Amino acid sequence: MEVISEGSWKRDRVEKKDLYEQHGVREYWIIDPEAQTIEVFSLERGAFKLTSKVDLGETASSKLLPGFAVTWSQLIL
To answer: pLDDT digits over 32-71, tens only?
Structure first.
C-alpha cells in the first residue's frame, strides 16, 4: 500500500508502480487521502490492471489475500 501525500503523486502513481510491476509484485494499493479513494491493482500478464476503485463508505478487497478488506474509515482511525 502506498499513501499519496503532497509531493508524492508522481513517485507513488508512476515510479513505484512501474518498479513494483517490473519486480512482479502481484497486488498494489494506492490510498489517496485527498480524493478519499482506495485503488487496488492486480498484476496481469506483467502489467498492473485496476481491479477496483472505492470511495468513502465502500470496501476495498484483496484478490491476493482472501478475506482481507478495508474501508476508508478503518484507515483514518
So the answer is: 988 889 999 999 999 999 999 999 889 999 999 999 999 8
One-letter amino acid at 26 equals R
Alpha carbons 17 and 15: distance in angstroms, whole number:
5
DSSP-derived secondary structure letter, 12 = I
Class of residue 32 by CB neighbours under 10 A (exposed 0-12, middle 13-18, buried 19+): middle
Dist CA 48 CA 58 (whole Å): 22
| CA-based torsion, 46, 18, 58, 3: positive or negative | positive
- DSSP letters spanning 36-61: TEEEEEEEETTEEEEEEEEETT-EEE
